[in-house]
Each structure stands twice: as structure tokens, then as C-alpha cells.
Amino acid sequence: MSKDISDWRFIEEHMGGHDEDGMPNFMNQPGFYDEKISDFDTFQDAMTWAKNNPGKAIARSPDGIGYIKK
Predict the structure, then answer these.
(1) Per-residue pLDDT for 50 more than 60?
(2) Which residues 6+ apart lie within 8 Å of 39 measured at CB?
(3) What is the pLDDT of residues 16-37, one digit of tens each?
(4) What SS3 class is residue 62?
């Protein structure tokens, strides 16, 4: 798998470089992965919302943790 040289260079020059695994350093900053993907933590919460919003749907969150409005 080859790297796009222009993206690699831009990250090196303007965004703090890369770690020893080749990942951009900004991805190692606190909070980078903290964004919550789900709207509801439990199935019961999701069902309550769905019952109160006819015509709306819920689905499993993309990360598999919790549920989202669909």
C-alpha cells in the first residue's frame, strides 16, 4: 500500500508529522477519538424515542456501541 506523497508531506510540514507507525501525530491527541457516535446508549432509550416519533427509525451505531436515529 503506497502513501500519497503530497498528503504525507503536508502532514509532515503543517500538522505535526507522523508517529513511528506512520499515523499522523494529531490522531494521538486527547479527544481525537472521543466523539460519541450513538444517540442512545440503550435499546430501551432508542425504543422510547422511536415510539414518540412515528415514522422515524433507529439502527445500531456504526461502532456497535449504542443506537442512532436513522
Answers:
(1) yes
(2) 46, 49, 61, 66, 67, 68, 69
(3) 999 888 889 888 777 676 666 7
(4) coil
- Domain range holding 3? 1-35
Q: Mean pLDDT in the chain?
A: 84
Tell me the percentage of the chain whose pLDDT exceeds 70: 86
Euclidean distance between CA atoms 2 and 67, whole angstroms: 36
Three state DSSP letters for 3-59: CCHHHHHHHHHHCCCECCCCCEHHHHCCCCCCCCCCCECCHHHHHHHHHCCCCCCEE
Residue 23 pairs with which residues in a beta bridge? Answer: none
Same domain, 27 and 52: no
Locate 62 and state its grid cell.
456504526
